[in-house]
Write a structure and sequence with these properties.
The chain is an alpha+beta fold. It has helices at residues 50-61, 63-71, 149-155, 160-169, and strands at 5-8, 43-46, 77-88, 91-103, 106-111, 126-130, 136-141, 144-147. It has one domain (5-169).
Length: 177
Amino acid sequence: MNTSKLQLLVIIPLLTAGGCATHRVNHPVSRELVQNGKNPECFYVKEKDMDMRNAVRTARKSVPQFIAALQNPTPTMRDFEVKKRFIQGDKVEHIWLSDITYSNKIFHGRVDNCPNKITGLKIGASASVSSGDISDWAYVDHGNLVGGYTIRVLYKELSPERKKEIEHENRFYIRDL
């Protein structure tokens, strides 16, 4: 069994700011909460984790739904984001991009999480990812999370108390698919 692990930064406010305490992100899907200097809450997922792999597959298969919403948003839709896998040597980190635009099968946006493993990458930096290489997508519609398949995998593992905290902290709800 392969025991190598990938680090996934969850984008609902399961994150608390560590080295990013001076920057507060306003995108509710990926924002990091400043909480008394605590380190970011990170989630390590086994490389062979089937639920997470299925979540990534679902996100990639349903990306046309995201593109359609991004290109023709209703007044109730907001906070469009995609998750990109960054690789630096043997380090892998999945990080959300916000302020998304889409052209020629490429998403363009800005880094919206404080990188934990990838050095030299900063919040606000421009980044691009092809539609076939995203690891997730998400937006909020009518106050509910749409997409966010990797978020849902990790969310279902949380305690009921932590789920209540997150629901209280967020400007959106996570409903069952």
